[in-house]
Design brief:
Helix content: 10-25%
Structural class: alpha/beta
CATH topology: Beta Polymerase, domain 2
Number of domains: 1
Largest sheet: 5 strands, mixed
Number of helices: 3
């Protein structure tokens, strides 16, 4: 079974050159990420946030890669939409350790709560006086 066939059950798939994009829902993100890991994508490069205030949502973007010479720039990118009024999504920090740091940054800059990551509270990067202020959110 190809990687595309395995990932198809989690949502819409697009492939461009060496990049596979998966568009899924918050309740499926952990299953998608576990599958990506099982398929050999052992490195999470980033978690980033796209703020769409006019649509009242955030899009969370996870980027994964594989180590090794045969990698050839292959990436898997997972996109998940969350409601801007109540931005919550399950953590993946128990699947990829580095995700803990990335989730904490997304929490602090955008106010996205990663359910299951108890370290997403207070301030990590910012001055304590800025607690509860999310500087990267658009007006």
């Amino acid at each position: 079974m190809s990687i595309l066939e395995k990932l198809k059950e989690f949502g819409k798939i697009k492939q461009q050159d060496n990049i596979i994009k998966i568009f899924t829902r918050p309740e499926k993100v952990r299953d998608v990420v576990k599958c990506v890991r099982e398929l050999g994508y052992d490195t999470i490069l980033t978690i980033s946030v796209i703020d769409l205030p006019e649509k009242r949502r955030f899009v969370i973007r996870y980027v994964f890669s594989r180590r090794g010479i045969d990698n050839k720039g292959r990436r898997v990118i997972v996109y998940v939409k969350v409601n801007r009024d109540r931005p919550e999504i399950p953590t993946i920090s128990d699947i990829y350790m580095f995700a803990d740091y990335l989730e904490r940054e997304c929490f602090e800059m955008y106010g996205i709560r990663f359910i299951g990551n108890d370290k997403c509270r207070g301030t990590f990067f910012l001055d304590k006086s800025l607690e509860g202020v999310f500087p990267h959110r658009k007006a």
